[in-house]
Specification:
39 residues, alpha+beta, three-stranded antiparallel sheet, 1 helix, 31% strand, flat
Length: 39
């Protein structure tokens, strides 16, 4: 992602791009979606 800023908060590294979209690791996404009936 061009122009993205990296930051570290907690134990997972995430990035925020120029449109303020947050990228998270797929492992964390899988954990969050596992308990959600919407996914």
């Amino acid at each position: 992602m061009l122009g993205s800023q990296e930051f570290l908060l907690g134990e997972f590294q995430r990035t925020m791009d120029e449109r303020f979209r947050l990228s998270i690791p797929s492992e964390l996404g899988d954990l969050l979606a596992a308990d959600s009936p919407d996914c």
